[in-house]
Amino acid sequence: MEEEEQNKGKKNKYSIIIPTYNERLNIALIVYLVFKHLREVDFEIIVVDDGSPDGTQDIVKQLQQVYGEDRILLRARPRKLGLGTAYSHGLKHASGNFVVIMDADLSHHPKYLPSFIRKQMETGASIVTGTRYVSGGGVHGWNLMRKLTSRGANVLAQTLLWPGVSDLTGSFRLYRRSVLEDVINSCVSKGYVFQMEMIVRASRKGYHIEEVPITFVDRVYGSSKLGGSEIVEYLKGLAYLLVAT
Amino acid sequence: MELADRAVGFILSVISISVFTYYTFWVIILPFVETDHFIHKYFLPREFAMLIPVFAGVALLSLLCIFIGIVMLKSKKKKA
Amino acid sequence: MKHIIKISSLLVAIMAFWIGLLETSIVPRSNAWLLPIYLIVSLGCYGLLMVGVGLMRFPTCPQEAGLLQKDIVEAKEFLKQRGVDVGSD
Q1: What pTM, to 2 d.p., does this model score?
Q2: What one-character-per-residue DSSP string does B8-34 give?
Q3: Domain assignment present for A4
């Protein structure tokens, strides 16, 4: 809270961390949309690319020519090293006092960024997380099986973990920088269980978490998967969180 | 498509509510009704109130274990 | 406090209550025996109900897909003008 008092005079800066792997087209579209929807805000985009073979980095360099190298930072890593470390890698290079993390596959639309920022300013929350399961939010492109598993997974997590957040696996979030630094170091999970671990740990540590509705349009280019092994990973993650937090 | 999904949700809700009501009636209220009352015709003997859920639970658990086992075996094969 | 401890203590409290019920026999013993199973069945029904309700009220947004397509066209147009190579996908 002290930090906030100090920052009142200063303008907030937002660092948007986007991990990519083979998102050549999507990253260009995302960057354009971020610049379109965030006009009156000081921000930077940090692309953490895990050595995509499709030329994602070339596109990012071209985008730097258009928007300026100080607004778009390319912080590449040599090979696929996982989502969790991608965020801490991006965080090292972030200069803002707030950090936004989002997916690069356009399932998270940048037009919701202003509502995240507004919510944070109104409530002074440490974390604002996007939720798909409230009115105003929503999902597009899921079949019955996908809906059923996601509802089942959610009910299971709500009953077992009591996290106080309605959408645990969503990964469109705004963090106060110090909070993200604090939470990210204690997280060990991989994949999307990592998102769940972050928010559960933050909630256990007593950070103020707020939610805003977002819509989720399943991947336009490429395909997302949900099979048996994802379900088992989820159950393992749930059991781990039950014991560890 | 959309409507069908909602219908499935509705059916699930109805099933769960009716199971709950039936079971509550069976376990909580029935013991206070005299044994020769006609309503007893609609319920199995009380032992089954214990046996059915236990069997269902064991069956569900073993299905879950089989599912997890199969998935784990598959992923191990992929790695090897 | 670890979360598992919270849940365990809740379970222990319920167990204690149940054993108390069995011992004092305020209600017939045959009834008290069924209490844990009754609770499990209720929990299962609650879970199923929540899944059902969640599925029934699952918020969907077909209009968003259309809007996104528009945004994509607009973005491609703009980026192409600025010389960003977005042609091949």
Answers
A1: 0.85
A2: HHHHHHHHHHHHHHHHHIIIIIGGGS-
A3: no
